Amino acid sequence: MNQSSFVVSSVNVNGLRAAAGKDPGFVSWLAATEADVVCLQETRAEPDQLPAKVHSPQGWHVVLCPARAKGRAGVAIYSRVEPDGVRVGFGEAEFEDSGRYVEADFGEVTVASLYLPSGEVGTPRQEEKERFMEAFLPYLVRRRAEVEALGRGLVVCGDWNIAHTEADLKNWRGNRKNSGFLPEERAWLSRVFDEAGYVDVVRALYPDQEGPYSWWSYRGRAFDNDTGWRIDYQVATPGLAARARSGRVERYPSREERWSDHAPVTVAFGLGE
Length: 273
Description:
By secondary structure, this protein is an alpha+beta fold. The protein has 7 helices and 12 strands. The strands form 2 sheets. Strands 3-4-2-1-12-11 form a 6-stranded mixed sheet. The protein has a 6-stranded mixed sheet with strand order 5-6-7-8-10-9. Helix 4 (124-149) runs parallel beside helix 5. The longest helix is centred in the middle third of the chain and has 26 residues, at 124-149. The chain is globular, with a radius of gyration of 17 Å. Keywords: Hydrolase, Magnesium, Metal-binding. Its cofactor is Mg(2+). Residues 10-262 form the Endonuclease/exonuclease/phosphatase domain.
């Protein structure tokens, strides 16, 4: 891309219609963002259910990938320039049209929006999460090799639904047996970094910081007390990660001004250097 900075933002909107209906909400945030590409997760909406200001806002190209199960999951990519190419799914039949993965090419960078299943211990939802993880890791290995062979980079943005370390979860002691912080889930995410060789961009920028958390339960005063989880990541191939100049969680000014239980995670990459 012929620009010195490439800004990517990602947020689980917890229902795009609801997030867009709030004031302030998604629409005002999108109008103000500096991002070149915005990845959304858990849109839970068909295109015909969205007003024009959401499905085709001025100045944005929009790729919406709803799930076959209406009202569930759903991912999207908003971009200021039209993508060079778009691919939905990652080659696994069960998840091909589940609204959980889409990637788009922009010059030398591929940006993906991921919504990894949330899971719940002892239920079919956890089994689905485990099947997804088992299929997705080999894809990440293969995809890294493909993009790097072309001299390009890949960043997988989204809700990974796993807090990797104790620094990524305020109440880690109380969640060791809960989905999202299970030892096997954390070990799988370590494999994404150690075996597949991807980089957790925000953690690489701020290695000694607790958080910054990106999700807070609506229950109690979790947001006010910053009792959160860091489960929303931008995970990049090493060459692209090394070009990250800044990363932050756009925490809402107050509980009342939240338009999702997740906050946007935004990273600025230096390109053309």
